[in-house]
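Hi R.,

Here's the chain you asked about this morning:
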Amino acid sequence: MSHPHFCTVHEFPLPEREYYAAAPVRWDAPAVSRPRRPAPSRARRRAGRSPLLLPVFLGLALFAGGFLLGRAGAVGDGSSFPADPLSRQFALLPEEPEAEDSGAVRILTVPGAVRGQGEDKTAVSQEAWNLILVNGDHPLPENFQVPEFTQLVNGHSIDKRAYPSLQRMMDDCRAAGLEPTICSSYRSREKQEELFERKVQSCLPQAGSRAEAEERAAEWVARPGTSEHQAGLAVDIVDKSYQLLDEGQEKTAVQRWLMEHCAEYGFILRYPTEKSALTGVGYEPWHYRYVGEEAAGEIMSRGICLEEYLAR
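And the predicted structure, written out as C-alpha cells:
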C-alpha cells in the first residue's frame, strides 16, 4: 500500500539503465593456437596395419558371444535384471549417494503460495517465489528474506530473479520516448514498521484509542509483513513529469504504456480500482508486481487480480 502522497525522487542525472553493469569480459582476445600434427601418409598407414588383427577380432567376437549367452541364461533363471536395453543401461550404473543437507538452501513455506504436486504437500514448488500472495490475510513470515537482490539506482533494489524483466520493461518504455521513474521498491520489515508507526502517530490525535489509530493508519500504509514491497517483487513507477501518487497518475503517458504492456514482461497492475474489496487495498495506478509472464498474461487479459488467479 502507499505511503505518503508524494513520490520522492532525487533530481540528479540518472543513467540509461536501472543497474550499473560490471565491465564485460574480454571476448576479442587472440586465441592460443596449437600446432597441428601432420596426418600420416597412406603408405605409413598401410605399413602400420598388423597381420594379427583378424585373429584378435575373431577372439573378441567369440568372447562377446559367450558373455551374452551367459546373461541370457541368468535371465531365464528368474533373475530380476531388466530386459529392456535402456533399463539395463541404467541398472549397470551405481546408485548415487544422497546429498547431505548443507543448510545453504532454505525453502520458505509462504501462505498463499502455489504448492507442488508431489507427496510432500508442505514444500513450495520451484516456481512459487513469483506467486507469493501478500496481503492483510496472508502476511509474510517474520523471518522471510529475499534470497538475493539487484541494486537499482537511487538506493532501490528488487529480487534478482525479477530484475531482468524489470530492466527490459523500463528500457522499452524509454525507447517509446517516455520517462518512467521508480520511486519505491523493496522495503525491509523494519522500514515498514517505521512507516506504519509514523502514520499511527499522526492518526492518534483524532482516534479514540491506539487500536483505532492503527485501523486508520492501515488504510494508507500497509501493516508490517503485509506489504508486497517487503517481498522484493513490487515497484512503484511514476511518470517523471507527474510524481504524485494519486489517481491522476493513470492519465500519464507512462502509466498508459505500462498498463498496456506490463504483462509482456511478467508484471501486473496489482491493485485495480474495481478489485479493492478482494485485495484490501485502494486503487494504485503506479504499483506493479512481478508474477511471471504466464500468470501476468492471464491476469491482465481477464481483468482479474492475483487473489482471483491463485483461487482457481
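Residues 8-16, 19-50, 74-126 have pLDDT under 50 and may be disordered.

Let me know if you need anything else.
M.
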